[in-house]
Write a structure and sequence with these properties.
Layout (H helix, E strand, L loop, with lengths): L5 H10 L14 E5 L11 E5 L3 H17 L13 H5 L14
Antiparallel strand pairs: 1-2
Length: 102
């Protein structure tokens, strides 16, 4: 039995019987927002995003996950994670780390 393929499913939904002749363009963007839109004292909310080829994202992701693992940054389920607010405020995984290590 062949495992389910979301790509094949989408291709068949778009091109029906000619699904093997179709092309896909896939775009992903990752954003991080700062500021607080509910705080009247803060006048700006910033958003940043990056666009790159898949091979660049794959390379960056591998390096990023290795960094998280090296510094033992995991959530309670063992999944690698990083939250800048925790780093900046020395909470959770960053509690007790020196300034240089943080």
């Amino acid at each position: 039995m062949t495992p389910y393929s979301l790509v094949e499913h989408l291709a068949k939904a778009v091109w029906f019987s000619r699904w093997q002749e179709g092309f896909f363009a896939v775009f992903s963007a990752y954003f991080d927002a700062s500021g607080d839109e509910t705080n009247e004292q803060e006048k700006f909310v910033t958003v940043a995003g990056f666009i790159a080829h898949a091979n660049i994202w794959i390379e960056w992701e591998n390096e990023w996950l290795a960094c998280l693992e090296e510094h033992k940054l995991f959530d309670k389920y063992g999944v690698p994670e990083f939250h800048m607010v925790e780093c900046a405020n020395r909470r959770h995984s960053f509690d007790g780390r020196g300034e240089r290590e943080r």
